[in-house]
Specification:
This protein is 9% helix and 38% strand. It is mostly beta strands.
Amino acid sequence: MEPETIYQPTVPVDPPSPVSPATSTSPLDKLSHFKPKASAKLVYLVAGVAIIFITLALAVTFFGGSKKSTTGSSSNSSSVDATAGFTTYTNIPHFYSLAIPPKWKIIETSPSQEGSLLIETDNQAIMEVNSFKAPDGSLDDYLSSLQDGRSAIKSSAIKAGSYDGVERSESWAKTGLQPIVTYVQIQDKMYIFTLLPSAGKNAISSESLLRDYHSVLSTFALTSTTGLGKDWKEYLTSKVDGLTFPGFTFTHPQSWAVTEESKDKNLIISVYRNNYEIRITQAEVGKAVCLFKDSPDFQGSSGDLRSKEYTEFTTGAGIIIRRYFNQNEGDKSTIFFCQKETDTPYFSTPTQLGGVAYYVPAKYDLNIVKEMDEIVKTFAPVTASPSATPQ
């Protein structure tokens, strides 16, 4: 779909910045065709910092913001039964911890966003840990659904911590690599551990490296079991002084992470998992009417969306909203929202809670977008300024 400009802002604004995974090193540059996937779709791990500039529709409602990854941490605490001298790493949003040998090093990444952790070993290899919501079905079903050019040379049962998994020596035809990949499914979470040859090597041949890899797998543990399954978590946003927008509450699956950033009297709330993000921006901007194909004629500040298809739904708080596909640019797409006004036949933006947008892959999974809709349906304003710290 060709990018389409619907409305140009009258004042310059910074374009929204989608979450940018941290830079990684070769051979990860080769891996774009071999990422784990949910719902039989590939999960994206971008191997470089990507800054996607979006042409805004009704852009006065959206402001850029960066997120800081604060959910992954490493420490020397013994939260798992690690081998002596190993360093423990904990990833809270994806409910796991593991420990690595003293000479292994965690490569800076964005585990809370991508569900991915990169570890540099001391023996010409990279270990990658991916975690994401598992598709429906068993682990065997998932392995059978892989159609990205990989094949299993050898497969065997294995334990990751106390959890059953499948370890495969794989051949990746598109890159010529032969990594060791371990798959573990725990309720609705998939954990994939990949030992990837680097430094010009195509296969893993070191027995000591394999022993260390299996030692790391033996330290894998869940930090929480209540976060798995279909459990949802409630979040209360802040109320920024000087903004007319209220604070609001919503609930989200435990596999989605939340951040908020207050800057220059603007509030940006991000709900995200992998390459899918719901962004709510609260800023003092004027309203614009969204003219859909069923809208009466209107004179004034508006955006012409009459060629756009839309999906309409009502939140639990009775807010009627429409989402429509805005445009794609590169490997990202944007979906924007307008809210039904209570005293006119028109929809307008921003909504009463702020500008709402989805940032998704260009080839997005509609099932994940529908899951995002279920989160938005829980949005509910609070009438009083929240005094509690957001959770």
